[in-house]
User: What shape does this take?
Amino acid sequence: MSDKSLEPQRLYRQIAKQIQTLISSGEFAVGSRLPAERDLATQLKVSRPSVREALIALEVEGVIEVRTGSGIYVKSLGKQGHAKASKHNAMLEWGPLEVMRARFLIEAETAAMAAENASANDLKAMRLALKGMQKDAKAGRIPRDHDIAFHMAIANACANSVMLDTLDQYLQARTGPLFERLGDYFESPASWAAAISEHEAVLQAIDTKDSQGARRAMQKHLRQAHKRFSASWRSAPSRS
Assistant: This one.
């Protein structure tokens, strides 16, 4: 089955169902180790990022267990079927890597527009959010709230309410269980330090009204963020 034949908004959910069917049929027995992401992607004829989102969903549901440095193991048969999300919380089930790819398209332009339209108050909001991130990171706290505030300040400065509302939904998705679990594995002091440095470059370009530079800086930031969340499981710190 190819990516194109699956529902685009719930691609990872379709893949998770395929993996769970293989588990139920006995191809992957309880207690056994699943093939590597790369091999699963080849077997199911889908992309590796989509497989990762599916595996995270199955872990949240208790079907598999990720053992850092060892592999991914079948934990239980799980429950067949999956309740449809309501319109209210549907965004919480968006695939994290899929959201990040969408953000790459939207936020590159919001940053460029912000460089052209940002007011003194907009720049102040960005600086305060960035300082909050730096303070949280220094104190060993996850600076997610200030990170969201930084991106929303940029969207607010672009002077386009539709783009602002769109990004708001994308960022709300970060509070969902899939994003939270993925963050457990791949967010770290080092990753946040890199993100803060990337934010500084975005703010510098916006502050100097360099729209092309702001676009490139935001693209680089979101490309690197996607890369961090797509890293090898072996590079993730142990959660035990």
Remarks:
- Residues 4-9, 83-88 have pLDDT under 50 and may be disordered.
- The radius of gyration is 19 Å.
- Residues 23 and 55 are 13 Å apart (CA to CA).
- The first strand starts at residue 64 and ends at 67.
